[in-house]
Structure formats: structure tokens, C-alpha cells
Amino acid sequence: MDAPESAPAWTFALAGALVSLALLEQLARGPQESALRARLPEGFADADPPRLERASPRELRALPGIGETRALAIARSRFEEGPIANPEQLERIRGIGPATVERVRAALELRQRGRR
Questions:
Q1: Beta-carbon neighbour count of residue 74 at 10 Å?
Q2: What is the average pLDDT value for the chain, to the nearest integer?
Q3: According to the model, what pLDDT value does residue 77 have?
Q4: Is residue 27 situated within a structural domain?
Q5: Structural domain boundaries, residue 65
Q6: Minimal CA–CA distance to 65: which of 97, 89, 42, 88?
Q7: Into how many domains does the chain fold?
Q8: Is residue 49 a contact partner of residue 114, using CB atoms and an 8 Å limit?
Q9: Is residue 87 assigned to a domain?
Q10: The model scores a pTM over 0.85
Q11: Is residue 19 part of a domain?
Q12: pLDDT classification of 3: cutoffs 50, 70, 90
């Protein structure tokens, strides 16, 4: 049996550079953002942020503190009371308070920064 071909040297250099870049990025973020990112679902910060005024209930469930019931309540509120333009307007929905609004706002800001 032949030994497998080893990867070209440039692949190891590239991998090392990517790891270094990821570490530098984590240091630049600071401990609070890193802690928030660690609590989010995998890939959340890299995806386009959901638009509160148009996101489907399924998309809204990706936000921290928003489960199926709250996502449906948000969709119903948009239909009955008009669009939700910013996270603060989520407080008009029963069961969503300042703590949830703050978590949603932080997650949306993190995703916006991740897109730049």
C-alpha cells in the first residue's frame, strides 16, 4: 500500500495564518463580545442578521431569548400593530422584557459587525 501524498507546504502556512488571524480577531473583540459569541448558535454571527420587520418566525427563533411562542407573537404583533423597526419595539409584546431586548440587540449588532 502506498503512503498518502502529504499536503503541500503552503496549506500548512495558510492554516497557521488563519489560526493567527482568528486569535487576533478574538482579542480585538474583547471579553464581552467573545462571551456573547460563545452563547450563540454555530454560524449565527456569520449569517445575515434577520430583519425584525420582515423575518419569518423561523428566522426569529435564531435570536437569543426568542423561542417558537415569542417568534409567533412577534409576527402577530407586526400584523396587528405594524412593523418593528428596532429591538426596543419588541417590548410591546407580552413576555418580552428589557433583558431579552438587550440580548437581541447585542446579537444583531454582533452579526452586523461580522458582515463587515
A1: 23
A2: 75
A3: 92
A4: no
A5: 40-115
A6: 97
A7: 1
A8: no
A9: yes
A10: no
A11: no
A12: very low
> Is the Cβ–Cβ distance between 100 and 65 less than 8 Å?
yes
For residue 28, give the amino acid letter: A
List pLDDT tens digits, range 51-91: 888 888 888 888 888 999 999 999 999 999 998 888 999 99
Q: Hunting for cell 417568534 — which residue is that? A: 71
Is 47 contained in some domain?
Answer: yes
Cell of 56: 419569518
pLDDT at 55: 86
Distance CA 28, CA 26 (A): 5
Question: The domain that contains 49 carries what CATH number?
Answer: 1.10.150.280
- State phi, psi for 33 to the nearest 5 degrees: -65, -40
pLDDT tens, 21-49?
A: 565 555 555 555 556 555 555 555 555 66
Residue written as cell 419588541?
Answer: 90
> For residue 51, is it left (φ>0), alpha (ψ between -120 and 50) or beta?
beta
